[in-house]
Amino acid sequence: MNRYTVDLTNCDREPIHLLGAIQPIGFLIALTLDWIVARASANIGEFLPGADGDLIGRPISEIFLAETIHSLRNRLAALRGTNAVDKIFDTQLTRGGAPFDIAIHRSSGQIVIESQPSVTRHGDATSMVRSMISRLDAVDEASAFYSEGARQVRALTGFDRVMVYRFAEDGSGEVVAETCKPGIGSFKGLRYPASDIPVQARALYKRNLLRVICDVDAVPVAIHPQRDEKGELLDLSHSILRSVSPIHIEYLKNMGVKASMSISIIVDGELWGLFACHHYAAKSPTFETRSVCELFSQVYSLRLESRERKEVMEYERRARDISDQLLGAVATNEQLLNDPEWLATILTDVIPAEGVGVWINGNYAFWGVTPSTEQFARIVRALNSAAATRVFATDEIASLLPEATEFADSAAGMMAIPISRSPRDYVILFRRELVRSVRWAGDPHKPVEYGPNGPRLTPRESFAEWQQLVKGHSQPFTAPELRVAETLRATLIEVVLRLASEASAQRD
Ligand code: BLA
């Protein structure tokens, strides 16, 4: 097996698709394009009595039944040069042998066949997914949609805990829904830093939608030979049995988890999140259950995508209504603009914030949790020197004004909406530091012995790491919120200009 030295400092560089080993629940054979055995996992003899290391160089027709090879050839032809995986269930590989489930795909110029003994089948996979989906369609709220997804995956697979883990733009993530067996505590609402699921893993999970770790204590089985005649390692990106990163195994062990599975949720071509599943005993979902899970998460992803589009459209429509309301109200009562409470109620209805400050002609007014007058004046000066003529938003005011760390506990992020032609007058929405609004739900685990990398590889330490990383940051402002703020800016400028021209007309 290849030995890479991985530790907490170089996780992003661990080549998790080239570890040269599989999990012992099945075996792997890689064939040349003329169906000669080029590689085999060291455990093949346990599954195919009589087959062992000297398979290399032999035609597969000497080992598998002719009709099985025929089906495999047809499946491979249908995959037409892609890396996609196809599966055949409940098939004999050798005469008189037990039935196997088989997965086939192309990789590194070879044909990869992975197999596992078949177990009793569940029934019709399509109707199973159909009934799972119809339950999803019955729910309304986003949070209920997440919980229902977790419930469905748990009902299908029987994992002790199933979570919906949602990624933020910076790669960190949050457990947004969870369903679990009683008495194992909860991770719901918790956040973790991007490094817990490093960059290359997130990239792989966009291409390969599902991975299982059947037993964290199982010894990985090496594939021989590791390198082909060109010196290349077998790319296991699409392998079903791929053995996973030892760092991640340590994470699971430190958590007391014995088996894990995760399924990608892809929205608009990006990794939106994962169904993350834990089990406290070894667990090996069948090839068929995995296929149903993949299909379910693909349909789930599409449903989520259309829900999110609809949500953004509805949000933007509501924002236009608010903007009209604002215009109409100020037209009949111009004093309203100097009333921060009124403005705040309207604005925070569409752009959540804990505080609002208004700065017009050197007069300021506040609502909610905001910096002091003097701090506010400094922010306005900094904004003016940055000559912001458009909406400016940051989740870390200190990136614009270093001394803002002093008041980060009351205002860590802000959205500044310039409301006069020259950047001078502003409405500013403030958000509090994010760590203050998220609390650790308690440690659901018994004390465990830590692996060589210590307690960092545990959810609690991850949470602490995440808190460190987001210190001084607020919940970021989103792209739709920025678009809405631009609309509101145009409205506010219009109002301010009209009031100014009315005032000067009165003076003349
Ligand atoms: C993979 N890390 C993962 C996966 C999850 C997590 C879900 C996908 C693999 C799987 O299905 O188990 C993280 N699991 C979590 C989190 C929760 C959870 C956050 O249940 C919260 C409740 N991991 C670290 C650090 C490193 C690291 C510090 O914490 C590296 C320095 C590495 N995690 C790591 C790697 C993988 C991984 C390399 C890829 C595993 C693979 O697919 O080979």
Automatic annotation (TrEMBL):
<keyword id="KW-0067">ATP-binding</keyword>
<keyword id="KW-0675">Receptor</keyword>
<keyword id="KW-0547">Nucleotide-binding</keyword>
<keyword id="KW-0600">Photoreceptor protein</keyword>
<keyword id="KW-0597">Phosphoprotein</keyword>
<feature type="domain" description="Phytochrome chromophore attachment site">
    <location>
        <begin position="141"/>
        <end position="298"/>
    </location>
</feature>
<protein>
    <recommendedName>
        <fullName>histidine kinase</fullName>
        <ecNumber>2.7.13.3</ecNumber>
    </recommendedName>
</protein>
<keyword id="KW-0157">Chromophore</keyword>
<keyword id="KW-0716">Sensory transduction</keyword>
<keyword id="KW-0808">Transferase</keyword>
<keyword id="KW-0418">Kinase</keyword>
